[in-house]
Every structure is written in structure tokens, then in C-alpha cells.
Inverse folding.
């Protein structure tokens, strides 16, 4: 299964979600291919320093991560889209993604961009809690 995590800049939320979910799937022997993309970014921007730091705290290296624009993704090749907010989900639908291929979290994930490390930790932990439900969903597929 190919999963695309989507946020605005693809330097904070979607990269954290992507690498955490990859780790969760590996630990549970679930075969997935995860990517991340941003609806308002260009390709090649490094993950934010605070994202790298808070992921390092839980043993995940995000230092080499580079952003990808949603425009650089062949959307038809993706099996499941995981937007960080309802607005991102609406953007995906406007791009032609069928609603049944979009997994909606129980609430929007707040954007920590420009925030301090505590805000990034909060966002990381918020994402992790939402990924538990996604893991259950993928396991049933």
C-alpha cells in the first residue's frame, strides 16, 4: 500500500507523520510505502530544525528529509492519502482524489511552524496518537 501524508509545507507535520508511521508499520510487519507532500511548498526544502530535533528525541532521524510539492506526485499511484487537516483533504479532493481514498484524522493537526520545541513535541505526540487509528485502519485493509 502506498500512503501519502499531506500538509502545507512538508517540513513539519507530514514528515513527522511519515517517518513515525513507517516505524510503526515496520514494528508491526505491515508492508507500506510512505511519502510526504505539501500543498504550498516547493520540492527540496529541508525539514524544519525543530522537527528534526523532536524526532531525534524519540530515536528517528529526519535530518535528511526534503520536502516534495504535491505537484510532483503522481496522485493516481497513491492508495491512501492522509491529510493533516480538513483543508488539506478538501485540497486533495479539488485535485481529483476520490473521497474514499482519504483517511481523515479525528481532528486537525496543529501547525507548529515558527513554534518552540514544546509546540513541536505537542504536535509530534498529537500525530502519534492519530497514527494509532491509521495503523488499525491499514491492518484491516
Amino acid at each position: 500500500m502506498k500512503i501519502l501524508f499531506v500538509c502545507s509545507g512538508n517540513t513539519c507535520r507530514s514528515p513527522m507523520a511519515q517517518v513515525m508511521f513507517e516505524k510503526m508499520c515496520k514494528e508491526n510487519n505491515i508492508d507500506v510505502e510512505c511519502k510526504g507532500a505539501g500543498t504550498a511548498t516547493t520540492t527540496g526544502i529541508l525539514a524544519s530544525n525543530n522537527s528534526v530535533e523532536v524526532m531525534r528525541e524519540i530515536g528517528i532521524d529526519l535530518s535528511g528529509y526534503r520536502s516534495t510539492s504535491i505537484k510532483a506526485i503522481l496522485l493516481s499511484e497513491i492508495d491512501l492519502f492522509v491529510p493533516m487537516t480538513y483543508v488539506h483533504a478538501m485540497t486533495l479532493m479539488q485535485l481529483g482524489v476520490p473521497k474514499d481514498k482519504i483517511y481523515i484524522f479525528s481532528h486537525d493537526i496543529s501547525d507548529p511552524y515558527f513554534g518552540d520545541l514544546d509546540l513541536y513535541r505537542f504536535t509530534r505526540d498529537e500525530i502519534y496518537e492519530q497514527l494509532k487509528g491509521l495503523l488499525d485502519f491499514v491492518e484491516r485493509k
User: Anything to note?
Assistant: The chain has a mean pLDDT of 97. The chain has four helices and three strands.
